[in-house]
Structures are given as C-alpha cells and as structure tokens.
Amino acid sequence: MEESISVAVTLEHWKEEILNSFTWINDRRISNGPCEGKNNYVKKILSNANGMSNFQR
After folding, report:
1. Cα separation of 31 and 20, whole Å?
2. What is the pLDDT of residues 12-21, one digit of tens each?
3. Helices in 1-54 by DSSP H: which ranges?
4. The whole model's pTM is what?
C-alpha cells in the first residue's frame, strides 16, 4: 500500500532521531520539552499584551 511505503520511508529517514529519543542521560530522557515550554511562555506573554508594542504604555 502506498501509505505504508510512505510511513516506512519516513521512519527510515528519521531512524537515528527516533532512537535518540529513547536515550537516557542523567536519569532523564532527551527531550525538547524545556525549549518548547519557554517558547510557549513567550507566546503567552505576547498574547496577554493584546498587540501592545510599546512597553512604556
């Protein structure tokens, strides 16, 4: 099936990265979660500013 071939190609292409996600360092798995959390925090600040571009106001 065409879809299965596409999934297999994707898995083969990202094999190293997928396997690295299961690697444990200092009793924690490697993750981009902390970085995503900081990005989300910045987005919330910008959202709460309601388009205000001048901080002095």
Report:
1. 9
2. 999 998 988 8
3. 2-13, 15-20, 33-48
4. 0.48
